[in-house]
Structure formats: structure tokens, C-alpha cells
Design a protein that fits this description.
Mean pLDDT: 94
Distance between the termini: 66 Å
Radius of gyration: 24 Å
Number of helices: 11
Number of strands: 9
Helix content: 40-55%
Strand content: 5-15%
CATH superfamily of the largest domain: NAD(P)-binding Rossmann-like Domain
CATH class of the largest domain: Alpha Beta
Order of helices and strands: EHEHEHEHEHEEHEHEHHHH
Number of domains: 2
Oligomer: single chain
């Protein structure tokens, strides 16, 4: 903790994360292409660097939160990039959500000069960044993970070692897959509720309330595998019960939708695939033919 930490990219997410490091015992060095983004840090005692290379020359750990793969590659391996000045043993953390292959390629380049790269995308949005309650999914060696655990704990209350380099990104993408498929499901629920004359804002309030109690979709993600559950496994009756409730409620919702003439393709697919996805097989109410496999005459 005696070495300074560095941060490159002070946008909505990166800026809030970096602010949590302003009182780091070894000091904070920051850089951003926008001079106005560094003002708060200057006022709070951070060192302002002119380039990522200048950040890395001073810091033992460098976090990067820029826009995309191209910017990450430039910040890490460009002419004025981190690898041009980083001392052996420096840990470079990529918080941007990029292609896992990009992180792996940069890690190989960094290894040649004795520098560790971890891909460390975050989940929790701007609110989590401001509150220091992000989840960070880290891909990298055990040594690199231990090195970043303490600085990451300043802006996160959950730091997970996902595996080798690239694993953090793959975990983030799996997490966001759930996030945005759930958003799609929410739009179907809104269409159904609107057709039924319900208050959509009240529905949203109920969804947020109940998910905060039950844990939402994450509440079923408690097994170490997605394989079929064998007889005698204690999860079998639990997730069979979840399937039965889900198939019942999905069937009822689809019946309501049919009455209003509302098409809910994601709900129909969920009814067909819920049991198999849970590892317990389809129940008696599952639709055996999801829309993708039906003919136009069905």
C-alpha cells in the first residue's frame, strides 16, 4: 500500500471509482483526455499525469476504465501506453467491458516485460460506483488477484476471482446476458400489464420490491453446474417446485395475453424451456413446441 495507484479514464464509472482511491496511503495518479475530468482529483491531492505512460511510471497498480477495445489497447500497449514505462511487477487492471481475447492478447504482451494484466469488469452501475458497492470480476493469476484485492475493495464490496485472464470478462458477459434478457422479459410484462389496463409504474414498484426480497433471477443460481439433476440430489425437489410454479404462472399469463391479443414470444419460450434449464426436465404444463420450432400453420 506504500506504492501509488493509478487510474486512467475518469468518466461516469471510472471517475467515481477513482474517487474512492483518493485517500490511498501511497497516493493516487490519474489521467484523462479531458482536463476538466481531473479537476476534482487535483483539488483532493492526486497527481495529474499527462498520459497513461506517465501514470504507469509512478504507480505500482494501474486501473483502466475507458470506452472500448481500441481505447484499451491504446492505453495499455500504445506508444504512450502503460507498458512503455511500467516496472516489472506492476499490475494493470482493465475495468472496461471488452472482448476477452483482447484482454488475453494484452496480457501476453505485458508478460514479456514482467507486467501482470487482469481483466476486471465491474457490475453495479453508476450507483454502485458512487457508493463503493460494485462487484468486480477478476481474471488473472493468483498473485495478481491478491495484489488488486485491497485497492479494489475501496470501490467494491464484492471482489471475485473468476479464473485466468479473460475469465472476468466472460463472467461479466454472462451476468449481462441475464441482465438484458431480463429487461426483454420486463418489456413483455409491461405490454401485458398495459393491455390489461394496469399501472405500469405500480408494477415496476412491485417488481423492485419483490426482487429485493427474493434475490430475483440470481436466487436459482446456487448450483456448481447447469447439468441435469440426478435422482436423490437435494436440489431436485426444490427446483422441481420452482418449475411447477413457473409453468403454472407462465401458462396463466399467456392465457391472459391471448385474451388481449398480446404476443409474448419470450414467455412462450420460457414455458417450453424452463424445466430443462433448471435441470429437472419439462413439467406437465410445458409447451413442447416453442415458437422457433412451429410451422406457420400451428
Amino acid at each position: 500500500m506504500s506504492a501509488p495507484v493509478g487510474f486512467v479514464g475518469l468518466g461516469q464509472m471510472g471517475g467515481s471509482m477513482a474517487r474512492k482511491l483518493a485517500d490511498w496511503p501511497g497516493g493516487l495518479v490519474v489521467s484523462d483526455v479531458r482536463s476538466d475530468a481531473t479537476e476534482w482529483f487535483r483539488e483532493h491531492g492526486a497527481t495529474i499525469a499527462a498520459s497513461p505512460a506517465e501514470v504507469a511510471a509512478a504507480a505500482g497498480h494501474v486501473s483502466i476504465a475507458v470506452l472500448d477495445d481500441k481505447q484499451v489497447a491504446e492505453v495499455v500497449a500504445g506508444p504512450e501506453g502503460v507498458l512503455s514505462t511500467a516496472a516489472p511487477g506492476t499490475v494493470v487492471a482493465i475495468h472496461s467491458t471488452i472482448d476477452a481475447a483482447t484482454a488475453e492478447s494484452l496480457a501476453r504482451a505485458a508478460e514479456k516485460v514482467g507486467v501482470h494484466v487482469v481483466d476486471a469488469p465491474v457490475s453495479g452501475g453508476a450507483m454502485g460506483a458512487r457508493g463503493g458497492t460494485l462487484a468486480v470480476m477478476v481474471g488473472g493469476s493468483d498473485e495478481a488477484f491478491e495484489a488488486v484485492r485491497e485497492p479494489f475493495s475501496r470501490f467494491s464490496d464484492k471482489v471475485v476471482h473468476a479464473g485466468p485472464v479473460g475469465s472476468g470478462t466472460r463472467m461479466k458477459l454472462a451476468r449481462n446476458l441475464l441482465h438484458f434478457v431480463s429487461f426483454t422479459a420486463a418489456t413483455e410484462a409491461q405490454r401485458l400489464a398495459e393491455a390489461a389496463g394496469l399501472d405500469l409504474e405500480a408494477l415496476g414498484d412491485v417488481v423492485r420490491h419483490s426482487d429485493a426480497v427474493t434475490g430475483g433471477p440470481g436466487s436459482i443460481m446456487l448450483r456448481p453446474t447447469a447439468a441435469r439433476i440426478e435422482d436423490g440430489d437435494p436440489w431436485l425437489p426444490i427446483l422441481s417446485h420452482v418449475r411447477d410454479l413457473g409453468e403454472k404462472d407462465l401458462s396463466l399469463a399467456l392465457a391472459v395475453a391471448d385474451g388481449y391479443g398480446v404476443d409474448l414470444p419470450l414467455a412462450r419460450r420460457a414455458l417450453a424451456e424452463l424445466g430443462d434449464g433448471l435441470g429437472v426436465g419439462a413439467g406437465p404444463l410445458a409447451d413442447p413446441a416453442p415458437p422457433s420450432s412451429r410451422s406457420n400453420d400451428d
